Amino acid sequence: MSTRKEHKGGYQTTYFDGDTVETGKGERGPRVRRVPSGDSVERLVCPECNFINYENPLMVVGAVVTFGDKFLLCKRSIEPRAGFWTIPAGYMELHETPLDGAKREAVEEANAAIEIDALLAIYTIPRISQVQMIYRASLPEPHFSPGPESTDVGLFSWDEIPWQEIAFPTVHWALNHFQEVRGQSAFAPFTNPEGATGTL
Amino acid sequence: MSTRKEHKGGYQTTYFDGDTVETGKGERGPRVRRVPSGDSVERLVCPECNFINYENPLMVVGAVVTFGDKFLLCKRSIEPRAGFWTIPAGYMELHETPLDGAKREAVEEANAAIEIDALLAIYTIPRISQVQMIYRASLPEPHFSPGPESTDVGLFSWDEIPWQEIAFPTVHWALNHFQEVRGQSAFAPFTNPEGATGTL
Known about the structure:
The structure is a homodimer of 200-residue chains.
Chain A: E1 12-14, E2 20-22, E3 32-34, E4 43-45, E5 52-53, E6 58-67, E7 70-76, E8 85-86, E9 89-91, H1 98-110, E10 115-125, E11 130-138, E12 150-156, H2 169-180
C-alpha cells in the first residue's frame, strides 16, 4: 500500500497503517497548540504568520482483486513493511471518488486495470485517524506488472497466499472478509474484526 | 450539519457541502505551490519555513435517525443553509471511528443518543473532496432538543418532511435511500444517485 508521507505538517511522518517517525520539530512554521478564534479544538498554529494547520482523518482506498480464484498481491518496495505483501491500496487524493482512487492505486502499484463490483469493508484505525474503504474487484485480463511501489506482483490461490509475509493487519482482514462473501451479490460491508484496532 | 470551517490552511474556507469563501491570501504562511522533494504532487508550501500544507479529502459522518415511523431533523442555526433542515451530520474528528462520529454529531446537533444499525450510504462530492458516510439509526426514546448548531429539532412523518426546506442534496438522497431499504436487515450501502455530484 501507499507510503506517501503524511500529514502532520512536515513535522511528523505517519506511514500508512503504521509507524510514526519524527522528522524534526522545526523552529519555524506551525508549532504552537492553541484554540483558534471561533473554534473549539486546539490546532497547531504558526506563531509568526498565524497559519492554522487543520488535521483531519485520512482515507485509504483499495481493493481485494481476483482473477478467477486467485488474488492479486503486491510486494512492497518501500517502507514501512518493504518486502511484505499487500493488496493495492493507498491514500485517496483530492477531487476523486473512492472508486476512482481504488482503481488508481491498482494502476500505480500493479499496472492493473481493475473492475470494482462492491464495497467489501470499511476499517477504522482511530490511533492513526485512518479510515480504509476496501472494495471487491476483479481483473478482466491477467495483465499486471510491478509499479514504482512494488518489487513484485503476483496471483495467488488462497493456499498460496504468503500469510507470514502480509504487510498489514487490514490486509489479513480484507482477504478473510472477501472469502466470507465470495459469490454473494449483496452484503453489508464488513468493519474491523471484533476488538481489532489495527495496531501492528 | 456541521459548518466547522475547513481546511485549506486558513486561506480558504470551504463550508460543509457547499460554498467556498476566500478569507484572504496572506503575505505570509504557506502560499507557494511546488512539488516537495520526494513527492509527485504540487503542495502549498511556506517559502519562509518550508512548512508543507498537505490537503486531503474530508470525511463527513451522519445518520438518518428514526423514532417509530418518524424522522429526526434539525433546523440549522448557522450558515450555509441557516433555517433549512438537515439530518445530524458533520466532519469526522481525529481519533474517532465513523460510528462514534455519527453519534457525536447527533448529540451536538440534537442532544440525541442514537443507536446505529447499518451503513446506509456513502456519498462522494469530488468538487469539494468530500466523502459522506451516512448511517441508519434509531432513537430509543423521544428525547431531543436543539444543540448549538440548531434552532429547532423535530420528528416528521414522511409526508410531513419539509422537502422544500431541506439544506443539502445529500439529505434528500439519504432520506429516499432510507425508504428504499426500510425494514431490510442486510443491504449494500447506496452511493450517489446516477449522475448526481452533489452540486447545489
